[in-house]
């Protein structure tokens, strides 16, 4: 049983991949098998085995499955017990909506710990105490199937695990056959032949499995829709204009420590364009083209709940340098999108709402972006571990790049796109030269909404706005339009592309601090050790293209320079028309919390999920009552079964059967005291053995009721039961303290229904 359960638990390795999992599953299997074996050896009743299992689950569950909530790492706490109880019921859903592996994150070890413990107890009990021990194979098989269903699409050595489980299962079926009259020598020879056949079949199976192609594997997580869908929130690129205008332009939105000047904090990466906005490609984005022209990803490939450790496969625009931490403090920023540096590998929240934010963290492996359902607000903070981002690729180096994949131009691109492409990047040039020509052409335009300027061109990045940008002479726009146009032109030139929105960390001198370094001072130390305020004016958008070197970042926005008066007179550059916001998603009645445009200087209201003192008291009392109920459940079950038996004996059956039941209750009380009467004795002999005059009188009255000429009347039955209750109280009264309580809670008398046994004797 230990070997079978160990093989079954090994299927859970891709879910956790941690030493904590090995310890939790190993202890659960060992303790569960021990409880089942002790129950069989000492003939424990069902309630006793259940009580021992629940006690082991409560005592060992917190230190093994919820180690972060264990006192000193070994003692359960109230909060840990609450997590253990709740996660036993809800952890299965969390496992299929979170990115793997989860390690010992929060309480997600509870499902495998609870399952293996229960399977070990039940499987061992079935194998040792039933006439069909082969049925015990169902329990290890359940652990194995659950690990496969809740695991990753690619299993951990599936052929080896499946073959080992099959071999051990066949050996089990051979070795646990009921004993027969076959001589021992013949039985040993038969078992030896069976073992040899099993070994041969296993060898053939392994060879066949290695020769056949691996079939597609479908797991539960592939059928579960994600909790977070980026398409339910407005495009962050549409909200960029609000960050560049007052009052957000001069407001501190984030405070960053440890980031190098010029590095980027990406708010979102958008790879689908439908002619209106750039968004995240999804399974139903029919008109939108993804960066590489491939079919839109399924929802499970977009955002998955993560533990805080981002996928190692994350490859944002660039990642160079050693691993370091960047600390971000949230000031005026609010939204579901979490700004993270390029190359981020882990996110850990700090502050009073750290646990709430960590529990609602989602990440997209494909787009290297992070979101939080709770939404960031003033006072939150987080630490990002990762590698430093490389600077924007210079335009004069773009000619050296080669496309990393085939790109599909957007079907809804403006008509002027082809004209500008033919002008800046003719088809006769290599892809790198075409990309360099596109970026140089865009950077020849003029930027509106520069810091310190109140000149803004028309907002938006729909096809009509990009048509206006590309046909104007000179071109005037802000990072929103230039980034969108650059992404579409790069795709047309053969490079997969996407638009990124975020912040560029300024130098300390730009924030007003004195940053003149001494001759012997390392400038990086000052940059990484001093906090830098990110204002709305530091927000921007850029384009990322896929090359043979990976995703690289390019800044297509022109440098700040005076805009010609002709452009201000002919266009709408000197006028700020009303903002044109994208249509709200259907079914959303409230403003989108993920739009960066929703900025406010007022202190936001407290989160609804912040528990108050009253809620904390209610949870504490409820937890205490729940734990107490679990601990007392086995004893309450014994008392309830005895009360039900006494009621059935007193109210059901014929009058003679009810009379016999009054004496059976007395005998059951004697058995619960641990002093059963001699077997195969009459009632009078049993009463004499008890040395009880009242018991002898009751035995005579019961005999008279059973063997008399007529059935006893209702009054006679009431008198018999009253005498029986008095005798029971007298017998229990002879015990003192714990002995009396032990007799009341003893399950010995529940093993036999003595009333029915005596009635059968009477009928005979």
TrEMBL record:
Its keywords, alphabetically, are: Hydrolase, Membrane, Protease, Transmembrane, Transmembrane helix
Recorded source organism is: Herbiconiux flava
DNA-binding as UniProt keyword:
no
Q: Where is the Transglutaminase-like domain?
A: 471-558
Instruction: Specify the protein name.
Output: Transglutaminase-like putative cysteine protease/drug/metabolite transporter superfamily protein YnfA
What GO terms describe the biological role, i.e. biological process, of this protein? proteolysis
Task: Give TM regions.
Answer: 21-41, 48-66, 105-128, 135-153, 159-176, 192-212, 614-641
Where do the record's region annotations for Disordered lie?
511-538, 555-611
